Amino acid sequence: MVSVMLWKEIVDNLRDRQTVFYALLFGPVLLPLLIGGALVASLKQAAVSFDEPSPIAVSYSERAPNLMKFLHSNNMDVEPAPAEIEASVRRGDVPVVLEIPQDFATALRSGTPAPLIIHVNDGDKHSAKEARKLNTLLNAYAQTINALRMQHRGIDPSVFNSVNVTLQDVSSNGFRGQLLASILPFLLIVAMVMGGFYLAIDTTAGERERQSLEPLLSLPMSRYKLVLGKYLAVLTFVGLSSILTAISLFLVFRFLSPEAAGGVISFDGPTITRAWLLASPLVFFIAAVLMTVAASTQSTKEAQTYLGLLMVFPMAPFFILQFVNIKSVNLTMALPMLSQYQLLERVVLQDDISYIHIGLSIAGTLLSAVLLYLAAVKLYSREKIL
């Protein structure tokens, strides 16, 4: 009877285009593409590569031959600047233009600051990126000239370095890596909730409004078996949604290099698989949450309202962890959602994970799922369910 109930719920909801769209397309595919794809594109756009050759338009390059050699040695191919510099940069014909003023060489020989002008369009991301790269190289060139000037005057350049501060980041990821590491569990968990959202509504409030719930309850089967069949149907959609989301995330983040992410992070197949396995206990928990909340409502509209508010639940750990540093201890590892966020972040960041923490996460999540399932059975046993 449980298998019949399971198959009945799956077939009924496969006929509902809205359920199929949100469970198998929007959450698992479109959401990772919209959020993950935009994040990947933004990081790649902002990342500056000094090893990749790039052209640089220079006005009056003949006034600074040594500077041109320096730029060329750092993978900057010097090209003539357009006649209308400001208009060309504003239109995007060239990303940036380096202008060498007429008094550049004179100032350099006299030991005074030599002027340089970088024409950039800060409203254009590509232009701003190229300007950052050029400005970094010019600062390096200026430091070289400063050191040569002091040596020429018999002064050791290190005399002016009264304090030598070294900022040593002991993490292997950096800020960008931390952000991407938290995005993975966020997308995976939100997609799970959306995967079973409409099915959970339809199995209870929808059945009640169609007046098909009373015939089901009159069948010669216990309530826990009836709820189990519906629960397994929701579980199937949540689980399938999590698998499709993991595949989508792998395909999206294949276009992001570890360097662009700001650290040593990985979104390869083994990492995504390991992250999915650690998050898989949430499939049982989320399906139970959706079933319990839907069973406590009286109408489809009420169920949509409550479950819509429930969407904040999987998002809460993401925003909390952005502002509060919660350490991974035994207590937090026993909490569903929060423990998966912390575990998945450490998987992406390639940090060591304690087997005790994994065991606590699995046990706490599955125990919560069982308690919620029993609560759903109790709700189905009430007369008010009709």
Question: What is the strand and helix layout of this fold?
Answer:
Elements (H helix, E strand, L loop, with lengths): L1 H13 L2 H30 L7 E6 L5 H9 L2 E5 L4 H7 L4 E4 L4 H7 L6 E4 L4 H28 L21 H36 L3 H5 L5 H31 L15 H11 L1 H15 L4 H11 L1 H12 L6 H4 L4 H11 L6 H26 L6
Parallel strand pairs: 1-2, 1-3
Antiparallel strand pairs: 3-4
Helix pairs in contact: 1-9, 2-7, 2-9, 7-9, 7-11, 7-12, 7-13, 7-15, 9-10, 9-11, 9-16, 10-15, 11-12, 11-16
Helix content: 55-70%
Instruction: Tell me the Rg in angstroms.
Output: 30 Å
Described by the principal axes of the CA atoms, the overall outline is: elongated
Number of helices, counting only DSSP H or I runs of 4 residues or more? 16
Structural class of the helix and strand makeup?
mainly alpha
Unreliable runs: 260-264
Could you say how many structural domains there are in total?
Answer: 2
Secondary-structure element string = HHEHEHEHEHHHHHHHHHHH
Mean pLDDT score: 79
Strand order of the largest sheet: 2-1-3-4
Number of strands: 4
The end-to-end distance, rounded to whole angstroms, is 21 Å
Explain the overall architecture.
The chain has 2 domains: 2-45 and 173-385, no CATH class; 54-160, abc type-2 transporter like fold (3-Layer(aba) Sandwich). The chain is mainly alpha-helical and 386 residues long. It has a 4-stranded mixed sheet with strand order 2-1-3-4, sandwiched between helices. Mean pLDDT is 79; it is low at 260-264. Strand 1, helix 3 (65-73) and strand 2 form a beta-alpha-beta unit. Helix 1 packs across helix 9 and helix 11 (281-295) packs parallel to helix 16 (355-380). The chain is built from 16 helices and 4 strands.
